[in-house]
Known about the structure:
Helix 8 links the parallel strand 7 and strand 8 (about 235-240). It is built from eleven helices and twelve strands. It is α/β, with parallel strands linked by helices.
Amino acid sequence: MATNSSRPGAVRKxxxxxxxxxxxxxxxxxxGKGPTPKASERTYHKAFKNKELAxxxxxxxxxxxxxxxxxxxxxxGRATEELVTGRNSVVEALRAGxxxxxxxxxxxxxxxxxxxxxxxxxxxxxxxxxxxxxxELDRLTEDAIHQGLVLQIPPYEYEDAxxxxxxxxxxxxKGHIANAPLIVALDGITDTRNLGAIIRSVSxxxxxxxxxxxxxxxxxxxxxxxxxxxxxxxxxxAKAPNLNRAIGAFQKMGYFVLGLDGxxxxxxxxxxxxxxxxxxxxxxxxxxxxxxxxxxCDQIVSIPINSDxxxxxxxxxxxxxxxxxxxxxxxxx
Length: 333
């Protein structure tokens, strides 16, 4: 039987050279959809829901939603939020009553007494509790050691030093305050723990305000809150754009400005103005008071100490001075 070899399609011919392609019709499908969005930007992800809860909680407490990373203040002095990380630090901060916005707990965290107490204290104070995956906490804390616990603290709101000193003076003159106004101004104190200890001493001896300069000074951070042992709730910290100008304003209001220095003109027990409105100015350990601040003080006072001891820590010097002033006020009342 003969075959018809000329029938179309019966013979497959092989062509040499490149074959015809798609002409790039599938190129768009091969390009992909770009980088994977962050977990907090994916609406179906748990991190996105946690972010929404945090923002709603911030709005409920009257605070604008902010980032929770530790960043320095902006050029215009805008405050940023701070994080307390680690189990010991978080539980101690909550025990001290530090204001907090959110307590982050790692998913499937290894529960111990510190974690249980932190969760209990946060619940009692109405602090929102949010679960987060470990990578999210790593990113939030910039890879700091957090041990599955992170406490977000709102920025401290400083009042104007001159305005607050004026308000305290007005209250005293109207009889709303029993003892004469007593404020403490810090000149070059950069250790936040020193600031916290000074706030604690001011609270213990019925002081009204702690004044810090706008620049080159420690601020009210988590460490300061913790060292103050909750006293920062009772004693406000005010800022002065220029400490020397603030001292001049205090003097015009009627405050007697005492500067603490090792080679002062008068020994602390011999001061004669203890019952008057006082602004006590303390400098840093080592450098002491700056030249201009020293010149603007009404009197330089020294604490009598053993000659073998060169100087006292700033917070210790403030505590001793406030105790002496308080004792003199009590005996002369």
